[in-house]
């Protein structure tokens, strides 16, 4: 978890500080589960919480990101991926979020169609029975 969550986010942040265009968007992966305790997965929760802290810090003045750049985090409740389907074959998938929905949102942020709040982590909540997905700034 350290390598896949924290180290990759630190590397992405370093690269963004050097190569992201002014006004660009840096998106880091967090998790909705780590907003509260994760007794079932201490390392997972701790590492995702560290990423959330990085996002918050990157939203502050003096973070080292280019002028006008925005750092945000995404915190899905559950992504509908082949790995998650395989790991949880009997789960109710009614509230899983499509990776295409997340990709569309990130595209809108990067293209300027929508503007995310800098330094915020967005909890992603889907209700497929109502065909809705919300991105809630935390």
Structure description:
By secondary structure, this protein is an alpha/beta fold. It has one domain (2-137): Rossmann fold (3-Layer(aba) Sandwich). The protein has four helices and six strands; from the N terminus they run αβαββαβαββ. A four-stranded mixed beta sheet has the order 1-2-5-6, with helices on both faces. It has a two-stranded parallel ribbon with strand order 3-4. Helix 1 packs parallel to helix 2.
Sheet-strand content, in percent, reads 15-25%
Structural class call reads alpha/beta
Rg of Cα set = 15 Å
Number of helices: 4
Order of helical and strand elements: HEHEEHEHEE
Sheet with the most strands, sense and barrel status: 4 strands, mixed
- End-to-end C-alpha gap: 22 Å
Portion in helices = 25-40%
Strand line-up in the sheet with most strands: 1-2-5-6
| CATH class placement | Alpha Beta
Query: What is the count of structural domains?
Result: 1
Describe this protein with a few key phrases.
138 residues; alpha/beta; Rossmann fold; 39% helix; 21% strand
Brief rundown of the structure:
The chain is built from four helices and six strands; from the N terminus they run H-E-H-E-E-H-E-H-E-E. It has 138 residues and is an alpha/beta fold.
Helix and strand arrangement:
Elements: H1 2-19, E1 25-29, H2 42-58, E2 70-76, E3 79-80, H3 82-87, E4 97-98, H4 99-111, E5 121-127, E6 132-137
Parallel strand pairs: 1-2, 2-5, 3-4
Antiparallel strand pairs: 5-6
Helix pairs in contact: 1-2
């Amino acid at each position: 978890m350290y390598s896949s969550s924290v180290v990759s986010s630190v590397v992405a942040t370093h690269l963004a500080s050097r190569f992201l265009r002014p006004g660009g968007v840096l998106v880091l992966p967090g998790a909705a589960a780590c907003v509260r305790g994760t007794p079932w997965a201490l390392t997972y929760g701790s590492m995702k919480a560290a990423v959330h802290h990085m996002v918050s810090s990157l939203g502050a003045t003096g973070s080292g990101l280019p002028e006008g750049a925005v750092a945000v985090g995404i915190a899905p409740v559950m992504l509908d991926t082949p790995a998650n389907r395989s790991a949880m074959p009997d789960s109710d998938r009614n509230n899983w979020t499509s990776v295409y929905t997340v990709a569309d949102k990130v595209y809108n942020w990067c293209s300027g169609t929508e503007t995310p709040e800098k330094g915020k982590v967005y909890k992603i909540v889907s209700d497929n029975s109502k065909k809705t997905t919300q991105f809630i700034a935390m």
